[in-house]
Amino acid sequence: MKIKIPNVDLIIKTNNIVSEEQGQKSVLLDRGKIESALSTAFYPGSEPFQNGGVAKIAGVLCFYLTKAHAFQDGNKRTATLTAITFMNLNGWDLTYPENDEENYSELALVINQATASEITKDQLIAWFDLHKIPYDEEE
User: Fold this and answer.
1) At the fourth CATH level, which superfamily is domain 8-134?
2) Distance CA 118, CA 95 (A)
3) Gyration radius from the chain CA atoms
4) Mind listing the pLDDT tens digit for each residue in 75-102?
5) Chain mean position to CA 79
6) Domain ranges within the chain, ordered by starting residue
7) Mean pLDDT across the chain
8) Is the separation of the CB atoms in 71 and 26 below 8 Å?
9) Centroid of chain to Cα 21
10) Helices (H), the chain
11) Position 126 pLDDT exceeds 80
């Protein structure tokens, strides 16, 4: 099976969606930062791409897109949604605890930790891998 990889335009559209949902205007600061994040995440010789599987690649993609800060707003949401979409397109999804009363999820917590450099790229990759489940399109 060939891996389906997101492109720059899909990531920009994703930011448009997440920004609009929050009543914000989508502002692209640097298209090259998205291109760089994609190139780094999907470099054929890199560890998660070469031997890691879809979930690990999604983790590294999320990490690099978040750190790239290519947009004025919505970088974490865009990176997270792009990573999950990448997983879904390639037969995987994430499962994690959510706390509706406190309005947080473990996913949001780990993304915030990665963005604040409280956890490493490798820890985020491991989190994605630990929380992967097969994707069922009929749910």
Assistant:
1) Fic/DOC protein, Fido domain (1.20.120.1870)
2) 22
3) 14
4) 999 999 999 999 999 999 999 988 766 7
5) 4
6) 8-134
7) 90
8) yes
9) 18
10) 8-21, 31-41, 47, 54-68, 75-89, 106-115, 121-130
11) yes
